[in-house]
Amino acid sequence: MSEREVLVEVSGVSKTYRDHVAVHALRDVSFTLDRGEFAAVVGPSGSGKTTLLNVIGALDVPDAGVIRIAGHELTATPRDQLADFRLRRLGFVFQAYNLFPVLTVLENLEFVAVLQGVKPADRRRRARELLEAVGLAELADKRPAELSGGEQQRVAVLRAIMTEPDLVLADEPTANLDSENAAILLDMMEQMNREKGITFLFSTHDPRVMERARKLIRLRDGRVE
Amino acid sequence: MRLFLAMAWRNVWRHRRRSVLTVMTIALGLAFNIFMRALGDGFHEQMVDNSVRAHIGHIQIHRAGYHDDPAITKTLPELDKIRSAIDALPGVRGASLRVLGDGLASSAENSAGVSIIGVDPEREPTVTTIHRAVVRGRYLERGRRKPCLIGERLAKTLQVDVGDSLVLLVQGADGSMGGEKYRVDGVFRSGAPELDRGVVYLLAEDAQELFVLPGRFTEAVILLDSSRRVDEAARILEEQLAGVEAEVLPWYVVEPYIQQFIELDDAFFYVIVLILFIVISVGILNTILMSVFERVREFGVMMSLGMKPRQVVRLVVMEAFLLGAVGVVFGGLLGSALTLYFEAVGMDFGAWAEGAAALGLTTTVTYPKLTAANLILSNSSVLLVVVLVALYPALHAARLEPVEAMRHV
Fold first, then answer.
1. Closest chain B residue to the Cα of A97, Cα to Cα
2. Which single residue of A184, B289, B309, B328 has CA 20 to 30 Å from B344?
3. Which class is A37-61+78-224 in CATH?
4. Per-residue pLDDT tens for A37-59?
């Protein structure tokens, strides 16, 4: 049996949005996630799933609590360094795919590698390898508008793992997909998780994702159940 | 970097019609700027050239202090040294010595205060064009008895014409009052009002006799083969004439009003350019702002993926720069073509002939002059304006919070 390594540690995290009224999105949330997990944060709409993914993804800052990823304490990291942390340690998959429409599929995959300063030949080779591994090589020179929703989301997943991050955060990745495409996407992410050991954390209320996840973190009204 | 360049270029053309309109605004503004600058340069050069060729030459040499306080007794010292210095000066197209003084010209009908210029009739045409300005009679010739050449307006004032006589009354260098009768051999029209209404040309030896200045001259005037060499030539002459009690004056010191007019004209031009740039800036700002507002969500995704604010600024500025560069290419070509066309055929401002004459222009046709400095300055200033204007929307994009930006619809 392989040795467990805690990759994500969330301890006592709270987040309140204050607009006209105070909305307690997260209340004293604590849990851990091991490296290599295929996990999902589940719960009804408004339960705090997206907020939790945002604070783990260094896109938002909690009001209280501590978040550590691979030993790096996010809550103690200056805001201007969080962009660099996201770039080097995290991958993101969004519900609406969010590929860059003016770039080809290949260039979309290269985007983050360019930000990381990877050499052109290296990043192109890696992008092509990934596309071939999931059978999307023929889409390399197409623009996102020429792809189906399922194809776009698969490319978005490849973009997220392009630079081999510690953790991929996927916010409702199957919400806009039909059953067939959702299954293909989940197969692909499971393949990446299994073969490359990439850790995935989803936010979802899609039963198809919940069935596949090996760990579920249930949220209700901002608390872990 | 190449990926971002490609991204910026494609972003520019996402809204083709809007970008084309912006490019046209930039191009037309730049073309107008290049053309107006060239027109100004050509006009100024022509003005300087006309004044230089009408009378003042590129460089004048006098006895020290003559320019500030002219006096008949202040004649050129050490003529041999001055002649040698001029002979040794490179790039001299022509040089002439003159005797200068003031007096009263009287005819049977009228009289007028005049400047009297004694010239060498063979040397003077190497410097000025006065010999070509004769409209009646003939230019000065040695061997004819006491000839003089007067301006058309002066001839009208004195009611004299070719063949008539006039008397010049002057105070000589020795303080004595003297007068002499001269025969009008020619009447000229230079286009320069001060010459046409107030100058009498004599043979140098007749002027020396009139002013009691035997063998003496007041002024040496030099024409160079290029007006760009004036400062260098003046410096060389000053070095050559060190120790000689003489002053070496470039044309813009002799006639400072020309330089002042050019500076004033430039100032007006810059005001026009400023207004033009404000109009261009508003167009570019509008385009870039719209482009940023339409892509708020996209910027949010970029920053979520780890793009830093300074990289966002760079991307937006790069887009503006590319938009500006396309405008500069078209504007530069259009402005250059327009300018080169009118540089070849000229622009006739006949309707403003009076005003042109007042500025020392002998022709109403102006030739714009396209210079490398004009192209470099116009193109680079437009690009600079584009980049500066783009900074505001770029900074706006860079300050977006990724989470909020991604919620943007």
1. B301
2. B328
3. alpha beta
4. 999 999 988 899 999 999 999 99
